Amino acid sequence: MMPTLRRTSFVLAAAAAVLAAAPAAAQSGNNSDNSGFIPSGSGAHSGSFLGPGLRTENEMFARNGDRVTFRNARTGCALRGAERAYRDSIAATTPTAAEARVQTLLGARDGTGDADAVAAALAHGAAPDSPLGRAARSLADALNGLMRDRGACGADRDSFDEAPQWQEAIRAFNDYIHNAPDSAFSPPAPELLAIHDALQSVVYHTLRNPNAP
Amino acid sequence: MPRIRTLLLPAALLCAGWTASAHAQVRAPRPHKRIEVVSQGMTPAQVRAVLGEPLRTRREGTLTYLYYANGSAAAGGDDYVVVQDCRVVGAHFANPSRFVARAPADTGTPPAAECHASAADSASAPPAMAMRADTPRTPAPPTDVNPGGAMPAQQPRLVAEDRPLPQLGAGEWRSKLTLRHPGTHLLAVPAASISSPTGFGVDMGEAFVGVAYQERTRFTTSDDATASIGMGFGDRDRLVGLEVSATSYSTLRGGGPFETGGLNFKLHHAFGDVWGVAVGYENAVRWGGSDAGQSPYATVTRVFRLNDDSSRPFSAIAATLGAGAGRFRSESDVAADRKTVNPFGAIGIQVIEPLSLTADWNGQDLYAAASIAPIRRVPLVINAGVADITGSAGDGARFILSAGLGFRWLPPFF
Fold first, then answer.
1. What is the ipTM for the molecules in this complex?
2. Shortest distance, CA A96 to any CA of chain B (angstroms)
3. What is the DSSP letter of B46?
4. What does the alpha-carbon distance between residue B174 and residue B189 come to, in Å, rounded to a whole number?
5. Minimal CA–CA distance to A168: which of B182, B272, B185?
6. Record: contact A29-B253, CB cut-off 8 A
7. How many angstroms separate the most distant Cα atoms in chain A?
8. What is the CATH number of domain B206-408?
9. Distance (Å, rounded) from C-alpha B180 to C-alpha A60?
10. Is A1 inside a domain boundary?
11. pLDDT for B206-247, tens place per residue?
């Protein structure tokens, strides 16, 4: 302990001696103190290339002006590949009634989706205008056609029109999970589990390999 | 004679009657065509009431097949009815007198006795297809009610039985079902300008520290350095952000850090991540007698994205254009103490994701610098370059070096 304190004191004393011996400030000419760093700052390092302030990067999404897009075209393409893998995986299976409702609503299975039926199942008997009813409706609407086959990948991120719907679907699902009353989980609607399976499969595979074709 | 005719008439009638009777015995009366209709949602007992006892039954997974002779060898195979959860979900009839009809789903729970596929089943073990009393089910309607020859097992639209759920509490379910959310991380990106202020700034929760060094100050041979710290307030996207920073001049020389310095303010608004506009006032408050003058300015920055994938080379160009007084004036105006406003501007090219090259005219000096962000997830940026490379405001080029680190002083939800 004492040797450490002594060593620290010595370093501080030496530093103080160096500073005291330093010559006076050299301030001559116009704005000699402005040495290149921007005094007013524009962030820590002047303006960045990705826009204002501290830059953050989402694994999946970005904003292009007011539009929500995928982070880049490769991420969008990886998501479509994950969607395709999910559709293929369920094609050979026999779904439960709840799974069939969800998969049809998602557009992952042929048929006409019934958002009302899925919303009603998720609402657990709650009134449509109740918080749970609204959360259920919001989620069901966000899933409508989400995973339908949209064809080949585009060359740039703006060509992936599904990005806003995917962001909304993830948000709506997690909102439902965190805000629904306990009664909604005793037990949860089979439709909720089917939705989780579908979204988790695609999100997981997209983020695990965001550069997959 | 009349008597004879009287006898012949009954005989003729008898003969005709016998002939008709005999003919009737030869030609059976034509039967009425019997239509047998099986509706979706029927129970096996109701099917048996319509079609009779099946020739045989077969179970496959959750499905049960009731087979019936179709009376036509040419049709091949038998007719069959597909039952799941005690309800008819489909059928295949080659017999033209048999039809299957779509019907609204019956959500009621049929009695267990209705669920026996055959009379033999009802007399033996409990029905395998009996529904659980606590889980009323709605059989999903098959999309093809008359499959036309395909085996039922090949019909993918038939539904499977709901899987049993584990007994978990609400909290456990929430934890289990929470979706993997795409994470958001801080990202280090290189600078788009060196000396000219841009139209972007930090807002609520964001902050930065920075240091800068020049190997000699203008018209001298002595080096010097500055240090800055700044914080953001407000909301640049919805309304306006306010960046407040303090700069220490003569940090290496003189009385040390913050002996001389100034406070700087910048109001800024961002239009997405493409446009930024700002007005600011450098050294609005000064202390210690620094020769860094007060410098109001207005500036706008536009980011041009050449490639939406920032990992690609030459993915973006940022252009800044502004006008200001104070340090943005020309050298002659500074020397003559003329209160003028001078334009400034900068252009930066993101060569690769962590590296940019910048040319910056701050009103009196032309700067050329390289900026690097060495660690992708740590917003540390290092700039190195040359000031006054044209010799227009001093006595020649000067080497400059600066570094800045961004961080959050509030959690992201503020």
1. 0.73
2. 4
3. H
4. 37
5. B182
6. no
7. 84
8. 2.40.160.40
9. 11
10. no
11. 888 888 888 887 777 778 788 888 899 999 888 999 999 988
